[in-house]
Amino acid sequence: LVSRIQNMRKEAGFEVTDRIVLGFVAEGVALRVLNEQADNIKTDVLAEGVNGNLDGFVKEFDINGEKVTLSVKKV
């Protein structure tokens, strides 16, 4: 998941040093993992926040058969 977010940062044209807000919409196991690991993910991708709002560069993924939509927005 972290590598997908890092790739999204690149696709959006962000620099490695840019701080972001990560948004997500998910269901099932993916939602539970995102909620439980939000602090670790935030640290790994240099995000200032993680929330359930999609804003900025948005991309949809299939992760282990579950639909997960992520967004990254520069702050």
What does it look like?
- The protein has 75 residues and is α+β, with helices and mostly antiparallel strands.
- It has helices spanning 2-11, 28-36, 38-44; strands spanning 20-25, 47-51, 57-63, 66-74.
- It has a four-stranded mixed beta sheet.
- Strand 3 (57-63) and strand 4 (66-74) form a beta hairpin.
- The two termini are 21 Å apart.
- The mean pLDDT is 94.
Rg from C-alpha positions? 11 Å
Round the mean pLDDT to the nearest integer and report it: 94
N to C succession of SSEs: HEHHEEE
Q: Roughly what percent helix?
A: 25-40%
Query: Number of helical segments?
Result: 3
Structural class: alpha+beta
- Walk across the major sheet and give the strand order: 2-1-4-3
For the secondary structure, the number of strands is 4
- Categorize the overall geometry: globular
Contiguous low-pLDDT stretches (5 residues minimum) are: none
CA(first)-CA(last) distance:
21 Å
Largest sheet, in brief, is:
4 strands, mixed
Strand content: 35-45%
Features:
single chain; 75 residues; alpha+beta; four-stranded mixed sheet; 3 helices; 35% helix; 36% strand
